[in-house]
């Protein structure tokens, strides 16, 4: 349903570094970082894989806090690695890795708050 999405950040350099660290365990990296003259003078970058940026951060407008973004993980170990990388990068805990059976029996997720207070999640829907 969703092709890509983006959020505004208050400190582009810090958020770029944060998301590089946090998304690496899930296999995502920066796929495109346009020159500021192509984005109205604002810095931006798109994270994804296979030359397809799907999650964008950018400076400019007032950051929105309270957004929720869930990234797909291939397995539970990747969810655990995401959580550890996020905490090491300065995220605040918002739900340690574990099963969330109230969503469905195999829902394994971890939640952190990014530097702007957005709820960032990694989730695996596969059993074990």
> Number of helical segments?
2
Distance between the termini: 26 Å
Domain count, please report it: 1
Name the poorly predicted regions. Answer: none
How would you sum up this structure, described in words?
- The protein is α/β, with parallel strands linked by helices.
- It has one domain (5-59, 66-124): 2,3-Dihydroxybiphenyl 1,2-Dioxygenase, domain 1 (Roll).
- The chain has 2 helices and 8 strands.
- The strands form 2 sheets. The chain has a 4-stranded mixed β-sheet with strand order 1-4-3-2, covered by helices on one side. Strands 5-8-7-6 form a 4-stranded mixed β-sheet, covered by helices on one side.
- Helix 1 (12-23) runs antiparallel to helix 2.
- The mean pLDDT is 94.
């Amino acid at each position: 349903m969703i092709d890509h999405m983006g959020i505004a950040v208050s400190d582009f350099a810090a958020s770029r570094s944060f998301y590089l660290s946090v998304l690496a365990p899930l296999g995502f990296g920066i796929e495109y970082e346009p020159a500021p003259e192509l984005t109205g003078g604002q810095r931006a970058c798109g994270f994804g894989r296979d030359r397809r940026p799907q999650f964008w951060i950018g400076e400019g407008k007032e950051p929105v806090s309270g957004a929720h973004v869930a990234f797909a993980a291939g397995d539970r170990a990747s969810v655990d690695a995401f959580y550890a990388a996020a905490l090491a990068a300065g995220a605040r805990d918002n739900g340690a890795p574990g099963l969330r059976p109230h969503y469905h029996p195999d829902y394994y997720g971890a939640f952190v708050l990014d530097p702007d207070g957005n709820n960032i999640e990694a989730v695996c829907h596969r059993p074990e």
